[in-house]
Amino acid sequence: MTVANLAALDGMRALTCPEPEREIGGVYIGDLLSWVMGRAKADDAWITIMTNINVVAVAALADTACIVLAEGVAPEQAVLDTAGAKGVNILQCGRPIYETALLLHENL
Amino acid sequence: MNEPLTFQYAVDGDNFTSAGQASVQVKKVLRRLGLDPETIRRVSIAMYEGEINMVIHAGGGEAEVRIYEDSIEIVLRDSGPGIADIDQAMQEGFSTAPDNIRSLGFGAGMGLPNMKRYTDSMQIESTVGVGTTITMRVDL
Fold first, then answer.
1. Which of A61, A64, A73 to mutate to test binding with chain B, by most B CBs within 10 Å of its CB?
2. Predicted confidence (pLDDT) per residue in B36-81, tens digit
3. What average pLDDT does this structure show over B99-113?
4. Where are the domains of chain A?
């Protein structure tokens, strides 16, 4: 499943999607950034509620397929601009984290 | 042996939002050199964790990356407070980061363990009140 496919699911929305054809290989959930860098795998979809600028660097360096912001949280425009420039996909899901994870589980 | 390709970066200690710029630069360089994605990922995460540590604890510092034919060496040098108990600092979950750093999602006590996890060797030289130098190597 590509990031574009994920973004098209009911309940999902692309906030910035510079690399829509990226394949999603798995899922990781977490808000502690070093934990994510230690445990997430390349090509994971990363579900979080953190929206500060550092999530963009973490996603870029950990090479995740996309960030999925759960609970409907929204980052500042500057974060989206940086993500777009660095090739980091950010999606948003209005559902709680668990249900966001289920949505991925059902569709991967 | 050929001279290594060397890159030097200053890590700004005041600017938390720009932390990671050196790592992102290194990632680009390694990509251009055609290294495999997992090696690039390991080097850039280890370096980013080190950069973040220098910003949180040491007011910045300097980073040097040397690319040899068979390995990549990352040297992070700061003039911060030093690490009193390195064994304790290496434990997952141990952290001295302040609350404002934790609210950003850092300070989970995973930085140094991640640096060790993603590199083939890591040496910490630290003197309290003088500073810390960390040398990491990733084999190619």
1. A61
2. 999 999 999 999 999 999 999 999 999 999 999 999 999 999 999 9
3. 93
4. 3-107
Q: Using CB atoms, which residue from B45, B104, B110 is nearest to A62?
A: B45
Residue A105 has pLDDT above 80, yes or no: yes
Tell me which of 3.40.50.300, 3.40.140.10, 3.30.1360.120, 3.40.1390.20 is the CATH number of domain A3-107: 3.40.1390.20
Q: Please state the ipTM of this predicted complex.
A: 0.86
Note whether B48 contacts A: Cβ–Cβ < 8 A.
yes
Which of chain B's residues have a Cβ under 8 Å away from the Cβ of A50?
104-105
Which residue from B44, B65, B36, B56 is spatially nearest to B105, judged by alpha carbons?
B56
> What's the rounded Cα separation, in Å, for the pair A6 and B104?
27
DSSP output for B7-72? EEEEEESS-STTTTHHHHHHHHHHHHTT--HHHHHHHHHHHHHHHHHHHHHSSEEEEEEEE-SSEE
Residue-range definition of the domain harbouring residue B70: 5-139
Higher-scoring residue by pLDDT: B132, B18? B132
B window 74-103, beta carbon within 8 A of A: none
* Closest to A100 (Cα-Cα) out of A78, A70, A72: A70
CATH number assigned to the domain comprising residue B122 = 3.30.565.10
Stated length of chain B: 140
R_g over Cα of chain A = 12
d(CA A9, CA B1): 55
